[in-house]
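Quick note —
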Amino acid sequence: MPDAVRALVADDDPSSRFFLVEALRSLGLDAQSCPDGPSAITLARKEAFDLLLLDCRMPGAGAEEVLTVLRNDPEARSTDCTAVATSADMDLAERQRLLSVEFSEVLQKPCSLADLRRILALVQAGTTATPLLDDALAIATMGDADVVKAMRTLLRAELASLYQDLDALADDATALGERLHRLRSSCGFCGAAALGAQATVLQRHLKLGHPGSLAPLSRFRRALLATIEALAVEDIT
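Predicted structure written out below.
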């Protein structure tokens, strides 16, 4: 059974906090909450969340301050998770500013269950515990272990090239999206399940078309490196 997406709701308004937590739980998420910015920072440093819903005007630290602290703390367990800013009072300029500082989305409160489903789609693919290399899946797809070995040799070269190009691609969302599209196909053939999942998450974010859409890039980069290393020592029998 897939692992539940872990979400943290930080909001000083009890009604908003209650609705968001219960709505997320109704969608199958493991959701918890806190009432202010400092508590959100503490929890997100200690625990690995997949999704943060942060109110813009909390006591102690608002959404932007919380996210800045976490993004600048590589030891924080939620440093690179998907973050969404929430507010009951949001004009277009404020929305664009928040999207420019790595929020994947901005939600106007009150929001609906449909809004939360849309947010969930951004993170869900990358939260299931999947192996770096799924030999059984690859052999079932390709039909022969020797063919899988040959395909994985090609995949490793493709991944090494992608890793070298990744910083440049981060400045060209169209080119990055095209590479991810091809990569997902290669991962499917070779059973590179974890990297394929992270590629899916990043591709979905890129379609948002703003600076915050690159938020999952660090998780993708880690999965890319881990898969390259796994391919170097893999042994299919």
